[in-house]
## 1
Amino acid sequence: MSDFFSYKGYPLVRNGKQIYYGNMSDDYVCMITINHTRKIKDLDVADKVKVMLMQTAADIDPSQMIVKNSDRGSLYEALEMAHTWLDKTK
């Protein structure tokens, strides 16, 4: 059993406002960055999120790692986009 939270079969790892989605051992992983939140009652809810599909190979120039990127209006929309991208890389 994995020690990570998962969404639709891919692990989620959070570090501050960044969430890595996918298996680091795969060719691609998504990085989701929360750029802005708003308060709904006592809860901070992401309303500006950047999604990036990145290659994980160690020998790639860092400037060439990002394959796709998109801005979304919620964390749910960002996760759905990331899931679609990762599924298409299989």
## 2
Amino acid sequence: MAEPTALGRSGFRLLFFAAIALVVFVRLLPVHPGGGGLPAPDGVLLLLLAWVQRRPRDLPVWLVAAVALFADIVFVRPPGLWALLTVAATEVLRRRAHLTGDRPFAVEWSGVAALVAAMTVARLAVLGLTLVPQPPLSAVALDAGVTILAYPLAALVCARVLGVRARDPSGRIA
């Protein structure tokens, strides 16, 4: 018989896969209301960051890497670069999970904003060093800004809709 924690983890992983599939499906839809205003936020990254903030033990590194690499391939980005940066960012959040107890949401949001900004700068640096053509800096900054501004919505969806809430140090769900 399976342990309740193992059963709970596999249930959360199935929920995670369903949420990622929905985000990818919606992003790939050929519907662009407004005719080219703001770019869409990186929903896969937002979901990964919000989930790891709340339940770092439920998403192992291999799963984060697989999902991020899948997103690189589906969204036609340089394969592996954004996935590597995503794994690094989630590992930073995972390593700091014990320090993040009962902190205000603004602190969480600013930490995620700093990570997204660092990921964007690192991506620009690597692509620049390899002489890969890049979009204008203003477009890249706008993408990062929209992703940062959409994080509260991703955190709200994770906590309220998907039921992914942080655990307190004793292991109970807060």
